[in-house]
Amino acid sequence: FYLPHGITIDQEDNIWTTDVGLHQVMKFSAGSNQPSMILGIRLTPGTDESHFCQPTDVAVASNGQFFVADGYCNSRVMKFSKNGTFLSYIGRNYQMNVVHSITLVEQLDRIYVADRENKRILCFKAGLKDEKETGKFVSSLVRKQLGRIYAVKYDPNMNVLYVASMLSGRGFGSTIGLLNGEVIATWHTGRNQMNLMTRNQNNKAMPHDIAVAPNGRAVYVTDILNEDNPLFKLQY
């Protein structure tokens, strides 16, 4: 690795990583320290089907197809077959600005995209059963209280989206109803409230990624400003 950014574990316990320094995506089989698949050209950013430019995240469907958030430079989502063959682009015509995180909702055939600098979550058809449906626009979620959206992850147990954001220099999390797009709860950083994000002496935080436990009982958030204790857990 050179500058690893995102990590995803799929339903077969494969581990997927993105490296924004190498401009690559890697897949590791469970228990292996050698990648079984590498996409992208090492240390070579680009805009075509075989290149990434600082990819940030991966989402994997149960049929093996996977999606790459590409990312800081290209601001697009790329869809691949199980064996790594490029299939299609998603969102290139929507002026996205830093595609920082993605999450799949398979039962709705949707992929949700954290369009960080535009402070919104875009939803597109994933095309898991019909490739012609891939990339069709579904909706845009914009809430002023969310600020810049760094991470979005779906919890099928609660049927909600968990979001990590920055607003006015403050890091925090939100729970959003999947069906109505409304903010159900906010994980504040106040001392007397649910203190998920702010743990360092300067009362600053930068949440960067989210993972949801398979049973939905815990949500994990990374904070890249807190090197001593970068992982926080919201327990249900």
UniProtKB/TrEMBL annotation:
MF-aspect GO terms: metal ion binding; peptidylamidoglycolate lyase activity
S-S pairs: C53-C73
Enzyme Commission code: 4.3.2.5
Gene Ontology biological process terms from the UniProt entry: peptide metabolic process
A Pfam family hit: NHL
Cited InterPro entries: 6-blade_b-propeller_TolB-like (IPR011042), NHL_repeat (IPR001258), PHM/PAL (IPR000720)
Alphabetized UniProt keyword annotations: Calcium, Disulfide bond, Glycoprotein, Lyase, Metal-binding, Repeat, Signal, Zinc
Cofactor details (free text): Binds one Zn(2+) ion per subunit.
Cofactor(s) required for function per UniProt: Zn(2+)
Residues annotated to bind a protein: Y72, R116
NHL repeat residue numbers: 1-31, 44-83
Protein residues bound to Zn(2+): H5, H100, H208
Top enzyme class: lyase
Annotated Gene Ontology cellular component terms: extracellular region; membrane
Listed name of the protein: peptidylamidoglycolate lyase
Organism ancestry: Eukaryota, Metazoa, Spiralia, Lophotrochozoa, Mollusca
